[in-house]
Amino acid sequence: MRFAVLGTGIVGRTLAAKLDSLGHDVVIGTRDPAATLARTETGPTGVGPYAAWQAEHAGIRLAGFAEAAAHADCLVNATAGQASIEALAAADAAHLQGKVLLDIANPLDFSRGFPPGLDPVDDDSLGERIQRTFPGLRVVKTLNTMNCQVMVDPGRVAGEHHVFVSGEDADAKKTARELLYSFGWPEASVLDLGGIETARGTEMLLPIWLRLMGSLGHTDFNFHIQGAGGPGAWGGH
Fold this sequence. Notes:
Largest sheet: 8 strands, mixed
Order of helices and strands: EHEHHEHEHEEEHEHEHEHHEE
Number of helices: 10
Helix content: 25-40%
Strand content: 15-25%
Strand order of the largest sheet: 3-2-1-4-5-8-9-10
Distance between the termini: 36 Å
Low-confidence stretches: 230-237
């Protein structure tokens, strides 16, 4: 399958490398490929220059958002949540029509410093905004409740734990589930929450995720829903 991963940060790079390792045709999309390749500084989170990473992943091509989206059968939104709508607009709606978008971003708002808040929150979500803005896309919210290393290697976390799926299109969610299985997620660990409005709940897990990271001192953890195998038996630990 042809994938366009939108976003050149650590999340985008991790997902692109995993997809490439599984034999998919992968392009990473960015606003300005020349500028991205020219950067030599380490990012604020310690992520090294993109060009150095690209040299180690020769099978993955870098392109502008529109070229990447036009190439792909399926897209992955790994941009910063506050910039996702703008990035998808740059990809051109004509290149998005009918395609599946796995939205793994969160609308983190750093306007008041760290830890960030969320915008939108409560009565809306980034997943919903993307679906409303680009109705031709088949948006599936998933993988946004964990560290990117756990996304592509669930075995990093011992025991049973879960990944959530939200979206309106049954076939798109089937595509998402099959991709998750290929990443190593057991079928029983993939929980379909329903329509795209349920992305509000998974995005609102981010504040507690950030505080758990601070308390635990690492990011190799995830959420396990006790009783997930039975209807209505929802409890967490």
